[in-house]
Amino acid sequence: MPADFLNVIFNFEGAGNTLNFKSYGQAFSFSSYSLTNMITFINDHFIEEEASVLNIRDLSIQRGFAVFDFFRTRNYIPLFLNHYLDRFFNSAAMIGLQPLHTKEKLKGIINELIFRNKISETGFKMILTGGYSADSFEPASPNFILQQQPLQLPAKEKFHKGINIILHEYMRDLPEIKSTNYLMAIWLLNKMKQQKADEVLYVKDNRVLEFPRSNVFAVTKNQTVVTPDENVLNGITRMMVLQLAEKKYKVEKRQVTIDELLDAAEVFLTSTTRRILPVLKINDQIISDGKPGAITVDLYNSFLKLEDEFCK
Questions:
Q1: Which three-class secondary structure state does DSSP give residue 302?
Q2: What pLDDT digit, counting tens, does each position of 120-144 carry?
Q3: How distant is the alpha carbon of residue 265 from its chain centre?
Q4: Cβ count within 10 A of residue 116
Q5: How many domains are contained in the chain?
Q6: Of 24, 67, 140, 271, which shows the fewest CB atoms inside 10 Å?
């Protein structure tokens, strides 16, 4: 159990439909729980998700002006939470929004939501909007949403199968910010379906950037692990993988060209919801021998061990 996860001791043990929960030395028991009637948190109160609403004047609706972040829980423990909170606050600051709660207060709200929803493997989304704008343009006092949903990660079979991707010329607005603007990514879904691709990778002026929801890595033929370092979101899983890679391999954060990517010995993506996935085909070109590479497999296994250690 990470020491920074507030001063709360969680001990979830369940059998059948019974869940035992210990917090602050006090024991709770739930004889029945389900995934329906999920509880969410808006601004300063908890509410059933189906009853949660925002006024249509909110700038996230009128102009798409909002930032967010997303993290996972494993066995009821938020993974690497401090890093996600740091990035969330940084995104807010970069667009001039002031979060409604401190990081420590947010940890308490997250604890409470975990307690109320009683689901071990989930995804949490934190959203900070531009608020109820008087003229539908000028930001106002922000609205805050904290949403928890069940989450199932890709099976190991998906890792070994790998993914097929295509390239698209595009760079996100203010890429260092995790915003709610996914207009291009969603617009490209039809193109992905037509080309039977699992994912699309943004490139700009012959430079490799990022996926809409993931970072990209390449392993050169001399076993150097490289990842783009400009005009990309600083992913938390990316950061963790870089730390793991630096213990064993030469690592470079720098510009990566399209030709270098296509000529790589290995390519993989990193993300909160997919951990690490090998990229085996790019624009119908098979990468190396079309199988997950040894370094990708090693980093994947190392990341799983890191999660295990974090949750002890």
A1: helix
A2: 999 999 999 999 999 999 999 999 9
A3: 26
A4: 14
A5: 2
A6: 24
- Identify whether the C-beta of residue 169 lies closer than 8 Å to the C-beta of residue 203: yes
pLDDT number for residue 29: 40
Instruction: Please say whether the beta carbons of 294 and 288 come within 8 A.
Output: no
Q: What is the largest CA-CA distance in the chain?
A: 59
The residue out of 116, 150, 184 marking a domain boundary is: 150
Beta bridge partners of 275: 271
Q: Which domain holds residue 218?
A: 156-310
CA 233, CA 172: separation in Å to the nearest integer? Answer: 9
Asked if the structure places residue 169 within a domain, the reply is yes
State the DSSP H helix or E strand holding residue 74, giving kind and residue range, or none if neither. Answer: strand 66-74
Same domain? 266 vs 290: yes
**pLDDT digit string (tens) for 234-249?**
999 999 999 999 999 9
Establish if 3 belongs to a structural domain: no
Q: Residue 132 carries which DSSP code?
A: B
Distance CA 138, CA 117 (A): 36
Q: List Cβ neighbours of 256 (8 Å cut-off, separation of 6 or more).
A: 207, 208, 216, 218, 226, 227, 228
Tokens of 249: 């391999």
Which of helix, strand or coil describes residue 72? strand
For the chain, percent of residues with pLDDT exceeding 70: 88
What SS3 class is residue 260? Answer: helix
